[in-house]
Amino acid sequence: MFSAMWHNFYNSVVRDVTPAIKGGIIFGLAILGLICVLFALLPSKKHKEKSDFVQNWFLLFLGFFFIILDIIYVCL
Questions:
Q1: How far is 13 from 28, CA to CA, in rounded Å?
Q2: Contact 50, 76 (CB under 8 A)
């Protein structure tokens, strides 16, 4: 059952997608990941001291997740 669900998902999202839509997905994931990393590293207005390099760890890991997902999608 899970194998059939995976093959249906893979065929509809990776194999049967036009190159323009695939490029849009790749571009969107890359921009989303870079924006998350950028906002994670920018100092916020609440924290005046610049002692912490990373301001938001959740956004940093979410950005890395999107970038890794983008690389995997490109390789498929």
A1: 15
A2: no
CA distance 54 to 63: 13
Q: Record the tokens describing residue 36, joined without a space.
A: 């998350």
d(CA 28, CA 16) in angstroms, rounded, equals 19
Which amino acid, 35? Answer: I
pTM for this structure?
0.78
Residue 27 in this model has a pLDDT that exceeds 90: yes
Name residues whose C-beta falls within 8 Å of residue 65's C-beta, 6 or more positions apart in sequence: 33
10 Å Cβ neighbour count for 50?
A: 8
